[in-house]
Amino acid sequence: MEDVICTFCGSVCDDGEFDLEKKKIKKFCKLGSSKFAEKQRIKAPMIDGKEVSYEEAIDKAVEILVNAKKPLLYGWASTANEAIRFGVLLAEKLGGVYDQCASVCHAPGTLAVIEEGLPGATLGSIKNRADVVIFWGSNPAEAHPRHGLRYSISAKGLLVKDRKQRKVIVVDVRPTKTAKMADVFIQIKPGFDYAIISALRAIISGSADVVPNEVGGVLKERLVELADIMKKAKYGVIFYGLGVTQSRGRDRNIENAIKLIQLLNRTTRWVIWPMRGHYNVVGAGEVPAWEVGYQYAIDFSRGYARFSPAEFSAVEVLKRRDCDAALIIASDPVAHFPMSAVKHLKQIPVIQIDPYPNMTTLLAKIVIPSAVYGIEAEGTAYRMDCIPLRVKKIIDTNYWTDEKILEEILKRVEKLKG
Amino acid sequence: MAVVIKPKKFFEVCVEAELTPELALRSVDEVKKFKVYYGNKVVELGELFEVAKQGDEKKLILDGDFSRVKWIGARMVDGEIVVKGSVGANCGAFMRGGKITIEGNADDWLGIEMAGGEIIVKGNAGNLVGCAYYGDAVGMTAGKIIIEGNAGNYVGEKMNGGEIVIKGNAGDFIGTEMRAGVIEIHGSCGFVGGDMRGGEIRIKGSFELLPTFKKTEKGWVGDVNVKGEGVIKTF
Amino acid sequence: MIVVELISGRTLDQGATVEEKLSEEYFNAVNYIELSEEDFGQLAVKEGERVKVITEFGEVVVFAKRSDLPKGLAFIPMGPYANAVIDPSTDGTGMPQFKGVKARVEKTEEKVKTVKELLEAI
Amino acid sequence: MLWIKNGIVVDPKNKIKAEKMDLFVKDGKIVDETKVKKQDCTVIDASGKLVVAGGVDMHAHIAGSKINTGRTMRPEEMRVVRNIAGKFRATVGRVLLTAPAIGYEYAKMGYTTSFEAAQPPIGALHTHEELDAIPMIDKGALPVFGNWHLVFKCIEEKNMEKLKALVAWAIERSKGFGVKVVNPGGVEAWMYGGNVKSLDDQVPGFNVTPREIITWLIKANEELGLPHSVHLHCNNLGVPGNYQTTIESIKLANGFSNAKRQVLHVTHVQFNAYAGSSWRDAGSGAAEIAKVVNSMDNVTIDMGQPIFGHATAMTGDAPFQFSLHKLIGARWSNKDTEVETGAGIVPIGYLPNNPVHALQWAIGLELGLLVDSNKVALTTDYPNGGPFTEYPYVMAMLMSKKMREGELSKVNAYVQKATGLTSIDVEKTLYEVIHMTRSLPAKILGLENKGHLGIGADADIAIYNLNPLETDTSKEFEKVYKMFKSAEYTIKGGEIIVKGGELVKEVYGRTFWVDATKKADIQAVMPDIREYFNYYSVQLGNYGVEERWIKKPARIEVV
To answer: In this structure, are residues A131 and A167 in contact, taking their beta carbons and an 8 Å threshold?
Structure first.
């Protein structure tokens, strides 16, 4: 089978070849290959560790959800839009909180978009045109292994034909694998992204004299060089990663970077884009945006959507003990949240929907196994640049899809709630 | 006719109660009927709180731990609120007048886009004090916020007037995109004044200066990236 | 004992095992700390020996690994071990500070907890 | 089955000017009286009420990555609560609405069809997902062609067969409805930081000009015989002095004809109707444009009327959006899209006392008043000019000079000298305004069963509490406005969805798309498409939308 679409990372490579007999994927990277490899699965739906039918598990889940004063519905980054849509409708119907993995990943980028917008481009546009590529706090060699080949570092584009015609720059606090592939590596002091971006803006806009000799561990002359490369680029791109979203400054770092891009566009072309992690974390934000108005950290307790990451992001909700039940789908907060947030998950009934057992399974009251999108189920996903792709079903399964499980839950909740 | 409101129990999830001194003008029974949100349930205030009358001022006395109660004093225009304990998020949001005294700590989003009045926090405050709410262009425009303890990050973002005084330390990114008004920090803080256009930030302790401010007689002036005339100085 | 600035982040191995969280492979992909040559030397540990990482927010025992990090910077792959010690405050953004927390690292004889044991300890 | 009794019907397509008559509905269609059993009919007493076809919005940005990025950028827009969750979905939005809010608000106003005016072909699946999420109305989407490298290549090669094949292939792949052209060549120039300034500028990297792009696409469109004509957003949008470019572009329709409809639709002309050389001396070019449009029988336009208040500029015209960002300093989103197109988004607001905004407002009205009612459709270019929910304001303004005088007194006096609005005495009739909002947009789009109430038409009907025989639309503008804001009944596909201005039933409409693949030799262009997919970031096999992925597709085959 050709043109198979990978449902691992935000690159969503769509050129895989799946050998149906050997059940092996070709062309994909280590991450993609692991996605398509056979793994331990949750065998059957469970309540308190006891195997039950899908119907029984769903009935019990519904009972917990409708009786909750504020259920948290979290995850969504590794499932299809069709499932996400039912999830958003369910959160609205329940008067709960919808939050998705971006809130511990790239959501600060969304806060920056609110402040300054998002001057961006699709990955195809970037591979065709970008003669300068900056990875700022991002490390595709480990997180998006084929990104460089398909879209950025060595991609063969229309105007920029190969690696030789492209300058690759890495800005990071450590010499990452990606840094080793770069023409220029600028090592900065952790927590100084904002200051360095401010300095670059000053240099580019003619206020270089104000900038001190060293900013964030980088000598001014190196910043002047970098500013010069940026100004001379015909079409440049900053791909930013968790290095800026998860460290000091978070959204303010990105906001500042967007202001830098705005400035550069006065004389040449520059775009900026987040290196989104999960294959459909973009869908997990886009679907609620059109259904209820916001991308994440959405509270429905008043019967309509309200947005406030300071209150309604999953980590804040859990740390404040502001939910009394949780539905966790397609993610593993127990592994990926700070301990102080996990603590509350241990106190409340947790319903988990996932193909694979993970740390959240260990504390979930109800576990509902599901089919894997892109392998066992078809559905829509948005690549990191918001390009929609229809991921494929390539083998049969008896597992229900997330879409079907959630539709069933929603139907029953609607019946109970009227 | 001050009204005294006391939580009856520990709240399983946060409560949203836009309590303002206007309530003091109502009878105890009416106050008990005031609608508050307990998770996704709309309930009467009296279900969650004890209500009593005391004295005759236009004043609310919130007696107990209100750290799980949000939006207290939101949009209030006059009168007084005294919180004997700590208070939840969004306290004094969009406030235009009157006075809120918090004897404990305040959570995030204290005094969002405050346009008048006074907030005093005896303990610590959270993040985003006096800021602009999501998507809005302007933060606090008038009034005064005094925090006797420490404050968190992003204090006074997009502030366009008024005064914030922090007797302890403040967090990071103070007065970002500030246009007017005064922030005074008696302790130390992190970055200050990113893209500041105007106003003044006074700091007694240490702070981190961004590379986009010019040293002048007045203090540090900037942010040059926005041709700003904001002033950062120590005292 | 040394003092470092600790960050967490993705690695290829962490990614490749992330859908097998209860496996030995995942355990091995996330249960170590990378230290610079100098810091590693100063701790006087051997590759694969155990260290205790202590921050304001918690402590965790992990395996020590030498790397080409700059001195003073340490790295634990994103996952439950990192999350036992990172700064959980979101400062009103919803995002905990997964990168950038002061940590003490010291040699220890304590064992490295399994993923399950970590959860039980919370 | 429905029996709408004793209504006063205005149905311009069928030349019915306020006649008292009954309508019958069966299986979602308007049928002859003999086709229904009257005793089985739900009867609606429409005595003394205006009965018209459901409104048709032929140009709005209601679905896809642009509006959704707009929502994400503007949480302050989403804080206006319109409906609390209950029997119907929760809806929020001030001007930028959520998908359910879009459907509900159209329905409440008596509108039953709306077309998304710009769909990047590679993002078509996203557009369709959002269209599927909009309840109540029928919809469709127009893919964009004016900056696509493959289009340039076919024109460079002067190969009409290839161009036709490309157009038919792309519309089929994107499940689109027609050919949208946005700032032809200008968006490609923006990839280098520039724009095109005249119809004869060469597009960077290609041996083509905007003039050629428009002309060739009109020719391809007409030879394919698509239901809708080329739908053009002109070059130089938002630039003082641009009315001349607009007139030149309109004249490119000369030499083409189509018995059923226009051969060129020029959209949101207000934004392209400025005289002068800068915003300091800008004036109105509306009268000149109207003169040209009125003199031609193969061109239509829509207004792009600004509404005072909040709005969000969002278009495929990426270089314009950057200029706007520089001009007003607001946040700015941009999306350069593969080798196909681009887009930009900037929040704006129209203030009555701002001379430029007042000028724009006046120009929109001038166009609506001066252009023949058979050639100008009513739009706000939602959300660029403002909310579609204020269509009734525009309708009332077109019908009442008195209302205009009142409004004129509230806006910046610059309008008095820069436009001719004050001296326009035209008052459109109710019949004309019904045409401009129903039968005309349906005709422009080529939707034969929409916009009218003849036998066989879709049973999309709006009933307003307004007796046209007893209402003086010139004097009673307040009443007219109020009545059109809130339909007494909205009937969609034969089902009552709104009653007394309130939602009563949620339905999902169809998505129209056009299949013209039999009218061209698709294979003629496939080698070029395959080659160009080296410059895409997706595989050709994963490009496009299958019909089964759409909730209620309605395929229109061109034979």
So the answer is: yes
